[in-house]
Amino acid sequence: MKKFKKLIKRGQYVGSKWSKTKVLLQNKLIRKYIPKTRKLNKRVLKSMLKEFKMIYLKPVNGTAGRGVIRAEKLKSNGKKTYKYQQGKEKRKFPSVSALYRKIKKSKVKRPYIAQQGIHLLKHKNRLFDLRIMVQRNSEKEWETTGIIGRAAHPQKIVTNYHNGGTPLSFKKIFKSHLTARKTKKYKKTLKKFGKDVAGAMSHKYPKLNMLGVDVGVDKKLTPWIIEVNTNPDLYIFKQLKDKATFHKIYRYAKQLKRA
């Protein structure tokens, strides 16, 4: 913990998902890529399930996918049911009230946000998202230094490596979705996107020097911002067969005194 605090002092840490969302919503170019997000209460749960059918519930302050819940509104033969999943636990409830009681019990009085669910692309029938690493270079300019795919555990809803997710190269994770040429072009687009997000965040928090931008991609290849991590894990990139990206990220982190 002492080492963590020491490293963070050399950058800037913003833990609240709600605070980070509000900052990004102020940027005209970025806001259209942010899923609708509200502070969770029973009324918000009901209205967002009515609008989106699937939403994610997340602790305002939380890491590594811990405490994340997926809620869904299902309808079969005119009958409504509400589905709950946290980790590998899955439950169904007959009403929003029953679902909310379960959620309240799970979140243990912690403040939560409700976020519009995005139907992500899949890799071998597993949900995946992307971590875009953005760091200040020697000229103090933002630079995207790596992008990695993260496939969720087959029985889970989060992609985090420390929660059973599998790190995969960008090329591998898009192999069944894009041609080699289009994959290269899309990666270039996301590199710029990562820098744009970092620019928007540092406008409010100027001492930021390293970000992990977590992006979910839908069938139209829209990059949705799931979360922005101000203390991103470098070592997930070490899991890739090609170590060049990790070495670059680590070198930049050392220069920033964050490793």
Please provide a brief summary of the model:
With about 260 residues, the chain is α+β, with helices and mostly antiparallel strands. Helix content is about 30%, strand content about 30%. It starts with a helix and ends with a helix.
Which tags fit this structure?
alpha+beta; 6-stranded antiparallel beta sheet; 7 helices; disordered N terminus
Main sheet specs: 6 strands, antiparallel
Q: Quick check: average pLDDT?
A: 90
Structural class: alpha+beta
**What name does the CATH topology of the largest domain carry?**
D-amino Acid Aminotransferase, Chain A, domain 1
The CATH superfamily title of the largest domain: ATP-grasp fold, B domain
Q: What is the annotated CATH architecture of the largest domain?
A: 2-Layer Sandwich
Number of strands: 12
- Residues in β-strands, percent: 25-35%
Q: Within the largest sheet, what's the order of strands?
A: 1-6-2-3-4-5
Rg, Cα atoms, Å: 19 Å
Number of helices: 7
CATH class of the largest domain: Alpha Beta
Distance between the termini: 14 Å
Shape: globular
N-to-C series of helices and strands: HHEHEEEEHEEEEEHHEEH
Q: Which range best describes the helical content: under 10%, 10-25%, 25-40%, 40-55%, 55-70% or over 70%?
A: 25-40%
The figure for the number of domains is 2
Which blocks of ≥5 consecutive residues have pLDDT under 50? 1-9
